[in-house]
Amino acid sequence: MNFYDGELMREAFLLRGYSETDDPKLADVILFHTCSVREHAEERVHGILGGLRAQKKENPNLVIGVVGCMADREGQALFEREPHVDIVCGSRHFPQLPSMVDQVLGGEERVLELGEAKAPVDSPIRDLTGRPSSWSAHVAVMRGCDLNCTYCIVPSVRGRVESRPLAEIVHEIQALVQSGVVEVQLLGQTIDSYGRDFPKEGRPSLAALLDQLADIPNLLRVKLITLHPAYVDQELADAMARSPQFHRFLPVPLQSGSNPVLRAMKRGYSLDQYRRKVDMLRNAMPDLELISDWIVGFPGETDADHVLSQEAMKEFQFLQSYVFQYSPRPGASSFELLDDVPMSVKKTRNHELLALQREISATRTPTMQGRTSRLMLEGVTKGDAGIWYGRIDNGHYAVLPAGINRKAGQFHEVKCVGYNGKSLTAKSLQLLGEPASPAPSMSLPIFGQSFS
Ligand code: SF4
C-alpha cells in the first residue's frame, strides 16, 4: 500500500510540472514516505533527515516533508526533533502535498496535516502518469482496518475501513487496461473485508468485484494483497475459483502457530479456525499456494510457541513467508507488554523460520514439473541475457528461454519441463496475450515546467 501511495504522490507532482531527480542535492523538494511498522524504519528516516540539515542551511528554499504513518504517529513532535522539516503530512492527506509545498514556498513556516481528511485519498478517476510499469498496476480497493491486532498501529493511523465504490474501481481498471495494463494488484489492509462498511442491503463484495473484472478483455491477471483469515468465506473462495484471472498465490497471514500467542495478538482466530479457512480455499482451488507473515518474539512467546509456529509452517506448506522480529510500537496496545524475548532469541527464531520456509519452497516447486500453466513474463534474469522469468498461475517462479519479441507483461501458456534448483524451467506452448499499445485517449500529459 505504501508503494502504491508513493505512486499516487509521484503522479500528483508530475501533473503539477515537477520532474524527478535521483540526486538529492539537485532536488527542490524532498519527501520521506514513511512506515511505522518497525522502529528501525523510523530511526533510518531520522538518520537521513539529520543528514539534510546542512543542505537546508545552504538552500533555505529546499522543502522537506515527512509523509505517511510516521507523520501520523509523531505529528508535531517531528518538527521539534527535526526543525528543518517544513511539512508533516499524515497518510490520509498526501494527495494535497503539491499544495502544501506551495504553502511553504509562499512563506508559511510549517504545514501540519493529520487525521481524517475531507476527501478520499483515491480519486474516482486516476491519472496514469505516475504508474511505474506499463503492464502491471496497483489499485487500492479499500483503506484502513476495523480490527485491532495488539502489535499494529495501522488502525490508529489509517482509520477504519473505507471501501471505494465498486463501479469506480472497475472504471479505473478498464482505463488501465486500455492503456496497456494486463495485470492489476488489488490492495487493501484487509482486502477481503471490502464492502463491509457499506449498508448491508446490496453492498459490494470482493467476490462481486472479481466477477465483474472477469468481463474485462485483456485483463489477464488479478492479484490480491492482503487477506485477513477472519473475512475469508465460501462466497469469496468460489469467486476466486471461477475467476479466469485470479492469481492463485494468496497472502493469508497466520502470524503465529500458537493459540496463546494468537490470542495475545488479538488476531481474531485460533489455529483451528485458520485451518478451516485454508481448507475452504484449498477445496475450492486445489492448486492454490499461500503466503504467510510471521512475527517472532512477540511478548511472552516461549520456545514451545515457536515450535508450534514451525509445525504450522510445515502443516500449511506455505510457498513463501515474510518473518518479522517483534518491535514494540508506541500507539499499539502491545506496547504496554514487557518485550521479554531477547533480541538474540528473536534473531534465531527468525532465521529458523526462514530456513524452514526455504526447505518447504524447495520441495514444493519441483512438484509443478510436467504441469501446464500460464506464465506472466516479468523481466530478464540477471546474468543470463535473454532468459525471461515470471510466475505461473499459482505463484511458482519459472524461467523461459529467449524468444522473438518477448516482453514484460506477455502471458504464455507454458509446460513446466524441469527445475533448475531455484525455478521451474518452462516451454512456451502459445502466446495468450500481451500489453496493448496505449489507447490515444489515455496518452500522458505534457510536462512543461521542471523544478529540478
Ligand atoms: S488486520 Fe491486524 S495487522 Fe492487519 S492492518 Fe488490521 S490491525 Fe493491523
Keywords:
five-stranded mixed β-barrel, four-stranded parallel beta sheet, Rossmann fold, globular, 452 residues, binds iron/sulfur cluster, 32% helix, OB fold (Dihydrolipoamide Acetyltransferase, E2P), alpha/beta, disordered C terminus, 3 domains, pyruvate-formate lyase- activating enzyme
Please describe what this structure looks like.
Residues 439-452 have low confidence and may be disordered. The chain has helices at residues 2-15, 39-51, 53-58, 69-74, 76-81, 97-105, 154-158, 166-178, 206-213, 234-242, 259-265, 271-284, 303-316, 343-364, and strands at 29-34, 63-68, 87-89, 111-113, 136-140, 142-143, 162-163, 183-187, 221-225, 249-251, 289-296, 320-325, 372-380, 388-392, 397-400, 411-419, 424-433. The protein folds into three domains: 2-113, Rossmann fold (3-Layer(aba) Sandwich); 136-366, pyruvate-formate lyase- activating enzyme (Alpha-Beta Horseshoe); 369-433, Nucleic acid-binding proteins (OB fold (Dihydrolipoamide Acetyltransferase, E2P)). α9 packs parallel to α10 (234-242) and α13 runs parallel beside α14 (343-364). Helix content is 32%, strand content 20%. The longest helix is centred in the last third of the chain and has 22 residues, at 343-364. With 452 residues, it is of the alpha/beta class. It has 14 helices and 17 strands. The strands form five sheets. A five-stranded mixed β-barrel has the order 13-14-15-17-16. Iron/sulfur cluster binds at residues 145, 147-149, 152, 154-155, 189-190, 228.
